[in-house]
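Hi team, as promised in this morning's meeting, here are the two structures we talked about. I've kept the exact order from the run log so nobody has to guess. The first one is mostly here for context; it's the second one we should focus on when we meet again. Sequence first, then the predicted structure tokens.
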Amino acid sequence: MRIGTMTSTMTPEATLDAQIQQVVDAEDDGFDSYWMAQISSIDALTFLALAGQRTNRIELGTAVVPTYPRHPTMLALQAVTAQAATNGRLVLGIGVSHKPVVEDRWGMDFKAPVRHMEQYLTVLRSLLDTGKVDYDGDMFRVSGEIQRVTTDPVSVCIAALAPRMLRLAGEKADGTVTWMVGPKTLETHIVPRITEAAREAGRTAPRVCVAVPICVTDDRRGAMEAAAATFRNYRTLPSYRRMLDIEGVESPAEVAIIGAEAEVEDQLRSLADAGATDFLAHSFDAGDGSTERTRELLKSLVGRI
């Protein structure tokens, strides 16, 4: 299982250069990948393109870019540009986001998200792979070309949790990026569905990129309380709620990886045994040097799980 590090936002006092330095440091520390979530503080693809100019080896991924605010033609242009800037190291993670975000924040219609993603992905993949598209669907009708500044193939993963989205990910994407999913859910729900869909479609085994909060600490109770407070909103979003129910837990804190070094290593191995191909470490601070301990443990485990 490859080990990467993940961030979702910039602190108010951070500069763009300081954030890019985190990617440089991740490469220097030997991590396999660095992932940026597209939230509201920084444009993930622009950021990764800039980070690609100061790094040489580390894979750079979005986890994930929401599809509804960006037409697939424009996302294809952004992705190809970032792929050129990173010398072929981009993984484009995309997702439909959530109904409250799409409808209440962006004022858009969240109807038929699986059909939206299927048509979006068809247009996007055609443009990424050939530079051309001629597609006539009920949600997207797109005909045209883009000038690709690189022909390096762009790997595309979609945020897939529900059965129909997992089937789509296996059939037409290179894998999935999950959030708030534990080992039981991976083994019994995520991995079998996406793997079978890829096999039936004649595709290679999909990537299963698993992002969860992580904290190395001796104060498990305190870290659990911190995780419960920090990630409490995810328990109410339907897609994550269903995954927590499959896992048999109530709170997102219960799928977070928390404990001393040996305990955390065991939990990471459980994810690998359940079928995770990539671990995206979303480190959170529980005080008493936990951030530094988490970093050191993850560094020591790269290439060993």
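And here is the second protein, the one for discussion:
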Amino acid sequence: MLALETLHGTRIVAAPEALDALDAATWSTSVTVLRFAPDDVFVLGAETISISGEYAIVEAESGFVGCWLTDEQLAHVAEHIDWPLPVERPVLVQGFVAGVPAKIWLTSSATGERSLLLCAAPYACELTERLA
């Protein structure tokens, strides 16, 4: 059974060009940058974030829950989706997982990284029950 925990990160909403520059920044290996949309990023593990942009919004975010998946757990989750997981990685995919809106940050297990399953906090119990 997966144990979803609150993900504490930073949410940034800004012009796509400002976020493109942020994506190009050099992050430590402990930082995960998830591009939800062209103007929306969720960053995990960064202590400070500097972004240019007159209208950029940078706020602490803890409205998501998730867990890092082993290859075996990812295979189990994949059995509960109606779409194929992309081969090219790293990539963020979004859709229904066991009928619940969720996201999966797919990484390359060949490099020792694990994938991240996340969803909005209000869906945590439903997703956990459906994946049991």
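Starting points for discussion:
Strands lie at 5-13, 32-37, 40-44, 57-69, 91-97, 100-106, 115-120.
The CA atoms of residues 3 and 67 lie 7 Å apart.
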